Request: fold
Amino acid sequence: MMSRFDELKQNWEKFVHFLKEKGIIRTARITYNVTWNMFLIVTVLLILGGVFAAGVGAGFFASLVKDEPVRAHTSMKEDIYNYEETSTVYFDNNQYMGKLQSDLDRQEVSLKDVSPFVLKAVISTEDQYFYEHEGVVPKAIFRAMYEEFSGAPIVTGGSTLTQQLIKNQILTNEVSFDRKAKEILLAMRLEKVLKKDEILEAYLNIVPYGRNSSGRNVAGIQAAAEGIFGIPASKLNLAQSAYLAGLPKNPFVYTPFSNGGVPKEDISAGVKRMQTVLNRMLSEGSITQAEYDEAIKYDIKKNLTTKQQSSFEKYPALTVEVQRRTVEILAKVQAEKDGKNFDKLTPEELKEYKDNARIQVRQKGIKIHTTINQKIYDEMQAVVANDNLFGPANEYVRGKKLDKPEPEEVGASLIDNKTGKIISFVAGRDFNREQTNHATYMKRQNGSTMKPLLAYSLALETGKVQPGSIVPDTPIQSGSHSIGNWDGKYDGLVSVRHSMKWSRNTPAVRSYMRVNTDEALNRLEKMGVSSLSPNDRGAPVLAIGGMTNGVTVEENTNAFATFANGGNFVDAYMIEKIESNNGELIYQHKTNPVQVYSPQTSYLLLDMMRDVVNGGTGNNINRYLSFSTDWAGKSGTTNDDIDSWFVGTNPNVSLGVWIGYDTPDSLVKGDGGTGKRNQRIWSLLANAAYKHSPQLMDPDKQFAMPSGIVRREICGISGKLPSDLCRSAGLVTTDLFNAKFTPSEVDDTLTKGRYVLVGDAKYKALPSTPQEFTKDGVLIKEEFLRELGLEALNKLTNTTNLLNNIVPEKELKENGKVPSAVAGAKMSDGVLSWASHGENDVIGYRIYHSSDGTSFKKIGSVTADKTSAKVPAGVVYVTAVDIAGKESPAQTKVQVGEKKPPAEPPTPPTDGNGDGGKPDKPQDPPPPPTEPTDPGTGDPPPATTQNNNKKKPSNG
Reply:
């Protein structure tokens, strides 16, 4: 039996035989050979064409990248991580304040601090083969090329995350073949330099995300998360992550906020893009269906963050000031690194360094730590927000109407004495009005606050004056200008302490002119006053604040802190340290005290300024302060009340306040004057700081008296040791001294003598001056007055009344002639009055009386300041007497009462009164004048009679 296999074989042989008989096999063989040969030819041609095309393509690619340098790995890493980042600012104690102004808001973040949902969303949307490719995906590139050349309506793009990073950080956004070729080449190279996670982290930190709730452009996932949803990148949920991952496709179409930071009415475009991202994540399996369903329902618009104030919006003055100081510091740091003296840079060099510093501030994400206490700063701004504390806005200046009314402005600075830290400041009432910082930038004359800084400081240091020294308060003529006091009054011979307490100008100028003024100005500059003009040198008015340029509130306050520091100046500062974005220290402030004055001089100034606060021109301070501590301070007002100042210091801090108009003009005085208004503001600002830091504002210690300070008794008229005559005159007082300059001489400026009173002035009596017009008293020697430049002084005054009975040893000049007769005598109700004599050397008047009009005798005398007296009935007349004793002729006689009959014939005189032998009438003794003096001697001058006392009719 034939097997199945044998049967099949037999059939196959029959089929082949059939094909041979018909010639089919031969034909098939020929066709096969031809086809195979054609295939080989075409294949070879295709291979040759491909090789040729590849060669051409390679050549073309090479031509596109021929100008691209071979970048070192370190160089590429620097370029990739060289992205712009917003700098941040901190209050003291590392308390976050905000970001500085920049073109773009970006914050660097590590990949570990980014939500895993963000990573999945970005990879699914932008580069699904990210962890597999080596920088480029050829298939994606060819697809993108085809879409580009074919004009396809949807372009999917062919760039990996690596390529996008290269485009943004190393190349440009230019659309061209050569840029794309360079991008491909550098992307493949970058994959050799960075790890995948490093590339992804860099990408997430550079990609743009549109605008945030403040209306600012944002880049980087951290800034986007905070600016759009108000949370850090690590807290983003799936829906939020998908929404943000979709934004870079078209940031300003998909962004939910408008230019001003207002949410858009329609954010559907961004939401649709979010849905697309979620779909891709689901299709790739990076999220589950449940996660997708939950995320797709998320209400993006409802969960957008509210508008956030930028640091500039919330703290405009502080932000600008911090940025300005930071630029200055960074420029100086770099210049010193380059071996250059910052203070000696050319204008061009300085500009270059500052421009580079500004770039660093705006783009390098540095961290700036300040000395500002946020709570105190905020509280101080709240104080000056009270319009009731200030005068009215000014509309006219010297009769010219301003473009718009200017409010009364304020500037204040609070400084820690020991460290120089600026704890807080007030730039003004509204910084946005004109962006002028009235605390740190504006310069104004500082008025009498200059007195402790310049007028008395070097004078005390060199012993030219001490607190008890007597320096006259009288007008000063300096060239064509006169220097006087703010109130137009003068206190005469007063102590330096009194002059400081009551802010007297002329003693301050006199004290300043006793020292080497160049040395005084050099020390003033050492205390931080940087704006002195060549015109200020040698100008006496500088001692009372008459500067060409003025000072800032910060400078003025900082200078006062010198005395609280025992004479050491510590420069005020606001920037504590600056760090790079990765925490590397760029700058750290170092305090560098400079000894300007001795501790003894400093303490004496402080002790005198205590009196200013406790009863002097700064006495309003204690009315408004809510706490009590050891304050020393000085008020200051410039001409025409244009500027009003008060600066106070205690053992811990110094606080200075200025008020005025931006366009200088007189302040409205109001109740108590501008000084009271300023001191109220000063006190309220001090209270604001005390509220949040009582230990700082109210130290538990007072200013410590250093060794070398002693208290001594002195004669209050000279500042020397008291003499017996000084003690008897009640002129002894006590005061503090630098032990090196205690008085060693006993007062010799006083002497005993006679004096006369003319009006309210006192003069030394002449030997021939009638004793009846003189008083015995204490005289101050003319030589001493001459040493003080007061030889013309004929009146001694001070506000303590110590000098009421002290007389200048100055004689009244006698005119050389007999005084003319007294005029204008008349009677009224029993009182005789007459006209004041017109001659300056007249020192008094004598009154003569007669009962019958035939014989007269002197019944009394009065000093020249009196022009009336009560007299008895009869006939009277008055004469004038000059300093030399010369007496005027008798005036016309005046009848007092009814005329009496003639008296009995006279008898020889028995009383020795020198009245021409005329007897007194014991039965009718005449009453004395109102203010009689010792009777004089000599015959009475002749007189005529006039009856000015007619009998009045009876009333019935």
Q: What stands out?
A: The longest helix spans residues 24-65. The longest strand covers residues 750-758. The radius of gyration is 50 Å.
